Predict the structure.
Amino acid sequence: MSQLEIKNLHVAIGEKEIVKGFSLTIRQGEVHAIMGPNGTGKSTLSKAIAGHPDYTITSGEVLLDGQSILSLEPDARARAGLFLAFQYPSEVPGVSIANFLRAAVQARMAEGEELDATAYYKRLYSKMDLLKIDRKFTSRAINDGFSGGEKKRCEILQMAMLEPKFALMDETDSGLDIDALRIVADGVNAMRGTNLGMLLITHYQRLLDYIVPDYVHVMWDGRIVKSGDKSLALELEAKGYDWVKTELAAANA
Ligand code: ADP
Ligand code: MG
């Protein structure tokens, strides 16, 4: 069974350290949620793992099955089995979703291997059925005039097609409405129990009403300060993040 290990990761943007010793191990099949107030470094963490050039990993490791991914280019990280949900072409007018997905699937195949069109469409349609996506959807151009919910649907379909070992989804900045939240949740739930390991970053407890995570972690000032199961999310909802802050202050006193 595969595992993704994030070990004592430190990430800086320019001179400023944002992620300050983040550690977490995710095994395939597990759903982990990371919650935390704005500005605590959640998006920085996911962008650094994706290999975004503006984010410098100053120390620590990210290991996929024991192998460091940090020297790999973003596309090689994807081929190794990581899926990073925010890595989307914002808009690609003229390129249909079906063709975009086909190129994405082809790009992840071994060199010299050809994607069989019949097999590809069969797989695409079976994933669309799984996710309850209308067939008409894939003839539309990528993100061209998409609603928030449609962007999410496209993202989830891409994830289903690529069958990654691990998916990282940062939902904080997308201003998800209920419709989009449901799409993400239904997609994740449909893929659950397969070999997918999932890191779901959110500051909305609401999302966790639809996706029940196996583990919940609270991120504060660049690191995990508290971990638990889904009851931790409920506790956070009831008590707010100030509760964590007060606990931390007491622990450090
Ligand atoms: P979160 O996702 O938890 O809300 P972020 O990772 O987006 O937090 O931001 C963490 C900190 O890093 C914030 O103080 C933010 O201002 C800063 N930051 C984020 N992106 C940049 C950037 N591109 N340049 C400079 N500072 C940034
Ligand atoms: Mg964020």
Notes: The two ends are 41 Å apart (CA to CA).
